[in-house]
Amino acid sequence: MMFQFERTRGAWILGVATAAVLSLASTSLLAQQYPNRSVRLVVTFPPGGFTDTLGRVVAGQLAKIWNQNVIVDNRPGASGMIGADFAAKSAPDGYTILIGTNTTNVSNHMIYPKVPYGRDAFAPVLLLASISNILVVSNSIPPSVNSIAELVAYAKTRPGKITYATPGHGLSGHLGMVLFSDEAGIDLVHVPFRGGALQDQALIAGEVNLSLVGLQTAVAGVKSGKLRPLANAGSRRLEQFPDLPTFAEAGYRNVEAGAWFGLMVPAGTPQEIIDKIHRDAAVVLNSPEFKERMTLFGATTLGGTPEDFTALIRRDRERWESVIKRHGIRAD
């Protein structure tokens, strides 16, 4: 009986070991073959904004490297939650990749009572870029307002009447304006739109008074005479606006609100595939085309490891959670 038990136990151990080896071999083969069909790159905002442009540059470059179609799939709505939820529920096989942002993967979980995907629904792959926001005013604000100090003075005489546009609740532009209005002691009205393109249209048309926008919108608006820049919400001055002070230089040291963008895949995606996407996307980041397009947007190319990306998400959650709780920022 003992002999039979040992034989059975030995066979079980051998079977488990064999299954493990076969599983590893299968995963390794899967990674070697990846991708052998079209890949979907989910962009959670409408066409025309920075996220969409970033997605199309990355998709085009990866398609060349992989010799496969990389299809940009715009799924806007609910501050990026519609697209992020779709990606989170996709098969964890590397054929659906999300361009995650500090909105979809940080602030949404703090301001919405119910988010359809969990905080750990994605595996970070590679940070792509970050952008600074610029505070601009439309021509609906008198031409005498040409600095942060003058804007604050103007707003204090009109509590609850000055409007600011954002691409949605909880985005960096929204949180940055909350920080600014709080530190300046002014009462501003938030007007959220469904994406940056709609926000920019309303701003340039003068339907809203001001906004934190990306560099490309600011440059185009200034050239057209429709917008006036007052401050940069980044940590340093921008080459395109060397005379434009940061909020810190203007006396508001806590107002720093940029946005980051990175590739993510559904949790459970094999590590070998994550490594493959990371290696090839890193090649894209170093390409002249990518760097040129990022320069046009005033964006900073990032990179790093998946662990670096995970650490950034953790730091952002700690930073913004206190701000959101303190100001009671909620969205329905």
> With helices defined by DSSP (H or I, 4 residues minimum), what is the helix count?
11
Total domains:
2
Share of residues in strands: 15-25%
Helix content: 40-55%
3D architecture notes:
The strands form 2 sheets. A 6-stranded mixed sheet has the order 2-1-3-10-4-11, sandwiched between helices. The chain is α/β, with parallel strands linked by helices. 46% of the residues lie in helices and 19% in strands. It folds into 2 domains: 38-130 and 258-327, Bordetella uptake gene, domain 1 (D-Maltodextrin-Binding Protein, domain 2, 3-Layer(aba) Sandwich), CATH 3.40.190.150; 134-232, 3-Layer(aba) Sandwich (D-Maltodextrin-Binding Protein, domain 2), CATH 3.40.190.10. It has helices at 2-33, 50-66, 81-88, 103-111, 148-156, 172-184, 196-204, 215-224, 271-285, 288-296, 306-327, and strands at 39-43, 70-74, 96-101, 122-131, 134-138, 162-166, 188-192, 210-213, 227-232, 259-266, 299-303. Helix 2 crosses helix 9. Helix 6 (172-184) links the parallel strand 6 (162-166) and strand 7 (188-192). The protein contains 11 helices and 11 strands. The longest helix is centred in the first third of the chain and has 32 residues, at 2-33.
Q: Which helices and strands appear, and what pairs or packs with what?
A:
Elements (H helix, E strand, L loop, with lengths): L1 H32 L5 E5 L6 H17 L3 E5 L6 H8 L7 E6 L1 H9 L10 E10 L2 E5 L9 H9 L5 E5 L5 H13 L3 E5 L3 H9 L5 E4 L1 H10 L2 E6 L26 E8 L4 H15 L2 H9 L2 E5 L2 H22 L5
Parallel strand pairs: 1-2, 1-3, 6-7, 6-8
Antiparallel strand pairs: 3-10, 4-10, 4-11, 5-8, 5-9
In brief, what are we looking at here?
The protein has about 325 residues and is α/β, with parallel strands linked by helices. It has eleven helices and eleven strands.
